[in-house]
Design brief:
- By secondary structure, this protein is α+β, with helices and mostly antiparallel strands.
- The protein has a single domain (3-102), classed as Beta-grasp domain (Ubiquitin-like (UB roll), Roll), CATH 3.10.20.30.
- Helix content is 13%, strand content 21%.
- β1 and β2 (13-17) form a beta hairpin.
- The relative contact order is 0.31.
């Protein structure tokens, strides 16, 4: 089974089993990582599920952020080149070995 690693803000790393077609946000929350707030529940109307895609495996493909996601990320004070909303990235087997870091808490995210 394909897996990915999530790093919390405090540096704790947890390996999570992926499931094809499921947003990273749901997989991370189901794994018990509650610091990924996901206030809007995955409707792309906040940025409280902001993550950094820090390590991508060879051959991995994540579609670029769409207009709604870019608009939400524009409010994130810690946006970087690797920033994504985890509700908008669906896991697939090509992401096996990916590393995701939870972005700093952003009070302007919703």
């Amino acid at each position: 089974m394909a897996k990915f690693t999530v790093e919390t803000r405090s540096g704790v790393k947890k390996e999570i089993a992926g499931k094809n077609g499921v947003p990273l946000m749901k997989l991370i929350r189901r794994a018990g990582i509650e610091e990924l707030v996901a206030q809007c529940g995955g409707t792309c109307s906040c940025a409280t599920c902001h993550v950094y895609l820090t390590v991508m495996p060879p051959g991995a493909f994540v579609p670029p952020a769409g207009p709604s996601e870019n608009m939400m990320l524009a409010n994130a004070t810690d946006r970087t080149f690797t920033s994504r909303l985890s509700c908008q990235v669906r896991f697939d087997d090509s992401l096996d070995g990916m590393h995701v870091s939870i972005a700093p808490e952003n009070l302007n995210s919703f």
